[in-house]
Amino acid sequence: MGVVALVAGVALGFFIARKYMMNYLQKNPPINEQMLKMMMMQMGQKPSQKKINQMMSAMNKQQTK
């Protein structure tokens, strides 16, 4: 009985933590447009808005997989 409760608690905790982290990352994305623009400038590229939009959409697409 105790083992079943332990396994159920671990599984429930995992899914709650996973849901929390997914919501957190949606509200606070790890990289925004300003950060991307700065990274491109540091790499010696002149960031156009089109290129930034392409990279942001690619990152968002990858994140939602």
Give me the count of strands.
0
Could you tell me how far the N terminus lies from the C terminus, measured between alpha carbons in angstroms? 37 Å
Please estimate the helix content.
over 70%
As a whole number of angstroms, the C-alpha radius of gyration is 19 Å
Please give the largest β-sheet.
none
Q: Kindly give the count of domains.
A: 2
State mean pLDDT (0 to 100 scale): 90
> Which class of secondary structure composition applies to the elements?
mainly alpha
User: What ranges have pLDDT less than 50 throughout 5 or more consecutive residues?
Assistant: none
The DSSP helix count reads: 3
Strand/helix succession? HHH
Range of strand content: under 5%
| Tertiary shape | rod-shaped
Keywords: Membrane, Transmembrane, Transmembrane helix
Subcellular location: Membrane
Main location: membrane
Family: Belongs to the UPF0154 family.
Main traits of this protein?
mainly alpha; 2 domains; rod-shaped; single chain; 65 residues
If you had to describe this structure to a student in words, what would you say it looks like?
The protein has 65 residues and is mostly helical. The chain has two domains: 1-30; 31-65. Helix content is 78%, strand content 0%. The longest helix has 26 residues, at 2-27. The protein is rod-shaped and about 65 Å long.
